[in-house]
Amino acid sequence: MIRIAICAPACPISHEDAARVADLARGWPGIELTVHPQCFASEGHFAGPDAARLAALVECANDPAFDAVWFARGGYGSNRIAQAALAAFDHRAQDKAFLGYSDMGYLLGGLYRERIGRPVHAPMPADIRRTGGSTAIARVFDWLTGNGAGLEPSLDDRPTVALNLTTLAMLAGTPLMPGLAGHVVQVEEVSEHLYAVDRLFFHATAHLGGIAGLRLGRVSDVPDNDRPFGSDAAQIARDWCDRHAIAFLGGADIGHDADNRIVPFGLVRGFRQP
Amino acid sequence: MIRIAICAPACPISHEDAARVADLARGWPGIELTVHPQCFASEGHFAGPDAARLAALVECANDPAFDAVWFARGGYGSNRIAQAALAAFDHRAQDKAFLGYSDMGYLLGGLYRERIGRPVHAPMPADIRRTGGSTAIARVFDWLTGNGAGLEPSLDDRPTVALNLTTLAMLAGTPLMPGLAGHVVQVEEVSEHLYAVDRLFFHATAHLGGIAGLRLGRVSDVPDNDRPFGSDAAQIARDWCDRHAIAFLGGADIGHDADNRIVPFGLVRGFRQP
Question: From edge to edge, which strands make up the β-sheet containing B68-71?
């Protein structure tokens, strides 16, 4: 039995969405879900104040009754509590998987830096709202129960991480930023103008010296600007990789969509694998 | 006579706007404007390709016929040519003032880091389009001709810089980032959601250890979000300053508007002052 705790370090989900995910989970007899009530809290932008989100996250991570901590939704806010959370995690967090993406990259990056648990880029409960969202959720249940079909297909014999580009740019130089020397770094973005994508690559690639290479996931929902930027996301990525002598390795099957594949941080691809 | 060269390291201006600024300049007999034709070039997002923007900038900076280089407009793009430009500037750039703000902060920051010329946060020709824009332009002509009435009023006996918050966040950790220990750092922002302002402060303050303190200029044109953020820009700035034990010093009279005051980087407040 894989016992999953769901909490929301950034923004809340609805009771309805949580119920839909719980219904779906019944198709995996090896999965048991526990939704922390903090997932439904709301204060301003966030799923409750920093203290409440931090308490729920630490409670889930340090509770031996759980095998995995699944982040309910991105949005914005996990960076506000990530350092305090990492400092409060104890040995009971060590064997757990921590799953999510987008804003959750602050936590995944920090966990990876501190070598706590198994950070995993993966769909989240809030993805149930997307067209085809149940296939995204199923990918997580499959992976946690030993079926690796949902792994990102380019994963090879090099350690890999997957991060939202904005999150990676904001992580850089902070106490949450993991060392990525020798890593393949996969990035994806959503809802940013191409000039902002170019600016984020300017910043992020200045911090990625020594990586094995960069892969570009989907850059989706790009807003229209008053004029076309003049190059596309792949050209932008290549340009900044070239400027920093970083190998551009091609695409990655990740993004803010239902097709978003699973990328366990590091080298080990399965859960509870020896 | 103060001879000013105008070029556009990021985005273009119109002939009409350049003409309005030139008309206005006739009120200052000590000012002579030369508008580089590159200001009107256009390629995709930018005022011409990187190579053309770089060439015009270096030409203006290294031409002994000019006393000041005035950046025509922000937008986005000076970061793409800033390192190459700094490397190409020679001794003839050394005595010049370089004036602009917003995206031009990449150049101002890099110049300050390399101790080249006099980087100055100041209105730009494109500000002529704003309501009251001629007062913003007049502030620049006044300052260059020895009238310091347009200086930011909080300037004191500590070295100061003024930067757009996004620009500062993107500068951090790159080869353009100046050392700011002991400095008062003034920031302003425009057209960003408050969650993004919070995220930018998370990142920027992680890189501002050792500064004398932070001042907050205007955070304007904040887009509506699907829900209120829960705190305002000043509360956000205070919160992140507190987390990093940075002194929050209050407001600054800078922003993306016609009231935007002048902040010469460092300690010297006048131009051509001994």
Answer: B31-35, B2-7, B68-71, B97-100, B118-121, B263-264
Beta-carbon contacts of residue B152 (< 8 Å; ≥ 6 apart): B121, B160, B162, B186, B252, B253, B254, B261, B262, B263
Q: Scanning every residue of chain B, which has its alpha carbon at the shortest distance from the alpha carbon of A228?
A: B44
DSSP state of A102: G
Helix pair angle (A194-205, A233-243), 10° resolution: 20
Tokens of A185: 């770094």
Burial A36-45 (b: 16+ CB within 10 A, else e): bebbbbeeeb
Residue written as tokens 């922003």?
B255
pLDDT in tens, A25-81: 999 999 999 999 999 999 999 999 999 999 999 999 999 999 999 999 999 999 999
Q: Which of A67, A72, A63, A64 is nearest to A40 (CA)?
A: A72
Give the C-alpha separation, A133 to A125, whole Å.
Answer: 9
Q: What's the gap in Å between the CA of B71 and the closest CA on chain A?
A: 19
Contact B230 A46 (CB under 8 A): yes
* Whether the predicted pLDDT of B108 surpasses 80: yes
3 state SS of B254: coil
CB–CB contact A229 B45 (8 Å): yes
Closest CA to A126 of A93, A152, A104: A104
Give yes or no for a contact between A174 and B209, defined as CB atoms under 8 angstroms apart.
no
d(Cα B242, Cα A232) in Å, to the nearest integer?
Answer: 40
Q: Is A63 exposed, middle or buried (0-12, 13-18, 19+ CB in 10 A)?
A: middle
Q: What is the dihedral of CA A270, A172, A190, B216, to 10 degrees?
A: 150
∠ CA B199-B251-B144 to the nearest 5 degrees?
110
Q: With H, G, I as helix, E, B as strand and everything else as coil, classify residue A77.
A: coil
Candidates A46, A80, A170; nearest CB to B203? A170
The SS3 assignment for B5 reads strand
Distance set, CA B154 to CA A6, A88, A254, B262 (Å):
48, 41, 48, 11
Tokens of A178: 């993991």
3-class state of residue B102 by DSSP: helix
Residue A198 to residues A240, B60, B201, Cα–Cα distance (Å) = 8, 26, 20
Q: Hey, what amino acid is at A206? A: A
User: For residues B192 and B222, is the Cβ–Cβ distance under 8 A?
Assistant: yes
Instruction: For B211-245, write each residue's pLDDT tens digit.
Output: 999 999 999 999 988 899 999 999 999 999 999 99
Both tokens assigned to A260: 């978003």
Strand partners, B119: B98
What would you report as the CA-atom Rg of chain A, rounded to the nearest whole angstrom?
Answer: 18
Q: Do A45 and B79 touch (CB under 8 A)?
A: no
